[in-house]
Amino acid sequence: MTKPTSASGAAKRAPGAGAPPRRGRRVDPIARGIWPFALPAVVVTAVLVLAPIAYTIWLSVSDRQADGTNAGFLGFANYTEMFADSEFWNALKVTVFLFAVCLIVETLLGLALGYVMSLDVPGRRIFQGMMLIPAITASVAVGLVWLLIMDPSLGAANQILAKVGVDPVVWLGDPDIAPWSIALVDIWQWTPFMALIIAAGIRSLPEEPFEAAAIDGASGWRTAWNVGLPLLRPVLTVAMLLRTVDLVRFFDTIYIMTQGGPVNATNTLNVYGYNTGFVDNEPSYAATLQIALLVLVVLIAGVFTWFRQRAAR
Question: How many separate domains does the chain show?
Answer without folding.
Answer: 1
